[in-house]
């Protein structure tokens, strides 16, 4: 197991105070470009949280609960914790490192919305650009609804389509191009802009919009406007980009001897804006810093306020896991991000999953502290660690949301022989779809 906890650089004026309700987040989009001052987490609480996180990851490793995992905590624009466990490839025993590239699945959506925001600022398009004005093929079953649908509607998951429209056909190797042109066969569940319906196919129409308005491919625009300026040196799109990486995490299944790697599945790479990004932990640390306001030269405070402002209510998201049922008081979808009222604090969050990979990212804007986790196996057990970290950072009562503190393994796979781990360097939703 590898853990590296870097020096804590916490401001002298640390302290927790009550945050404004999530309902105020929408109003922030129109505020000044000046980034708000971070309140910070008390230094001792941060120290205790990182020590506890290391212990939880030790337990995760001891139980062989993942094939491999990479995680980091970022505070006040600094990486304060960086850890890896397990293997990028259990067959060759290649370890996960901070440079190992993972599939991000639906964490990709925030890159699409960030690029859109940059292009909006450059005058290439508008959040309110009508899809029918730039995409001749775009149709919905209701012609009037199609005429009103905007860029904001597809990126805010409020186009009115049923949840995960055509994801099953995408997994059956039907092309994105065909599915995007068959949206007019689907009965809408509500009028455009009126309800939440999580999409991958419809969301990826932003790639066509970008090409129509810039004359350049979507992935090249992300590379030029996001990856390169943020120093995300190993970030890429597609299976070819993944497998060209010097170190990349193979997807794994549990087996009698631990974990068995298998070939990455192509389906969700065909919807690049929704699920096509590959990135390492080093890349995602820079992404977190930028999303928390640390790179205003790339993502301005005004743009971040727009990206993180709630667009549509998502009450169903408050009940999909025990920690959500206990901690969330409100839930919305913004532009490529989920916005949670987490015990009175705003949590910006997203998760992703494709077969053999899972990812999570979240941050507390008021305190400018966040974390990212990526692992290359399907077990959801590590997902409980994220709320455990945020509970600790906020001084909330401790709950073992991951079930990691009990002695019993969560599944048979965790008791398999041949457990993979590395020594410490220093102390310190479709079933296979993307969500």
UniProtKB/TrEMBL annotation:
Domain Beta-lactamase-related span(s) in chain numbering: 55-382
Coiled coil: none
Composition bias, Basic residues: 416-425
Keyword rRNA processing listed: no
Signal peptide: 1-25
Compositional bias ranges of the Polar residues kind: 426-435
Keywords from the UniProt entry: Signal
Keyword Signal: yes
SUPFAM superfamilies in the cross-refs: beta-lactamase/transpeptidase-like
Region of interest called Disordered, as start-end residue ranges on this chain: 412-435
PANTHER family: BETA-LACTAMASE-RELATED DOMAIN-CONTAINING PROTEIN, D-ALANYL-D-ALANINE-CARBOXYPEPTIDASE/ENDOPEPTIDASE AMPH
Protein name per the record: Beta-lactamase
């Amino acid at each position: 197991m590898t853990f590296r906890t870097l020096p804590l650089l916490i401001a002298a004026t640390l302290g927790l105070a009550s945050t404004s309700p999530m309902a105020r987040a929408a109003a922030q989009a129109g505020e000044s470009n000046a980034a708000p001052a971070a309140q910070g987490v008390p230094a001792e609480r941060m120290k205790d949280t990182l020590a506890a996180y290391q212990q939880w990851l030790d337990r995760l490793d001891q139980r062989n609960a993942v094939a491999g995992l990479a995680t980091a905590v970022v505070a006040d624009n600094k990486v304060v914790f960086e850890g890896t466990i397990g293997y990028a490839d259990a067959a060759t025993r290649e370890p996960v490192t901070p440079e190992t590239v993972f599939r991000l699945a639906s964490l990709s959506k925030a890159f699409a919305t960030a690029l859109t925001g940059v292009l909006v600022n450059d005058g290439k398009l508008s959040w309110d650009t009508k899809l029918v004005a730039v995409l001749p093929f775009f149709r919905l079953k209701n012609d009037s609804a199609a005429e009103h649908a905007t860029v904001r509607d597809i990126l805010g998951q409020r186009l009115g389509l049923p949840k995960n429209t055509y994801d099953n056909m995408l997994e059956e190797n039907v092309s994105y191009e065909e599915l995007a042109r068959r949206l007019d066969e689907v009965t809408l569940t509500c009028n455009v802009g009126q309800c939440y319906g999580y999409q991958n196919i419809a969301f990826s129409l932003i790639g066509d919009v970008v090409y129509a308005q810039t004359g350049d491919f979507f992935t090249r625009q992300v590379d030029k406007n996001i990856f390169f300026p943020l120093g995300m040196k190993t970030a890429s799109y597609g299976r070819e980009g993944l497998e060209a990486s010097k170190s990349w995490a193979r997807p794994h299944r549990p087996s009698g001897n631990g974990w068995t790697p298998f070939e990455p599945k192509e389906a969700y790479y065909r919807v690049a804006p929704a699920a096509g990004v590959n990135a390492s932990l080093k890349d995602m640390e820079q992404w977190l810093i930028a999303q928390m306001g640390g790179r205003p030269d790339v993502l301005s405070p005004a743009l971040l306020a727009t990206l993180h402002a709630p667009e549509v209510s998502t009450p169903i998201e408050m009940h999909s896991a025990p920690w959500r049922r206990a901690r969330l008081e409100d839930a919305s979808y913004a532009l490529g991000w989920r916005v949670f009222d987490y015990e009175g604090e705003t949590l910006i969050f997203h998760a992703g999953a494709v077969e053999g990979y899972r990812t999570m990212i979240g941050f507390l804007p008021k305190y400018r502290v966040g974390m990212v986790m990526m692992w290359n196996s399907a077990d959801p057990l590590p997902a409980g660690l994220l709320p455990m970290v945020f509970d600790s950072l906020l001084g909330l009562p401790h709950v073992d949301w991951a079930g990691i503190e009990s002695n019993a393994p969560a599944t048979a796979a965790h008791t398999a022989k041949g457990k993979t781990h590395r020594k410490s360097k220093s102390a310190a939703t479709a079933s296979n779809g993307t969500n």
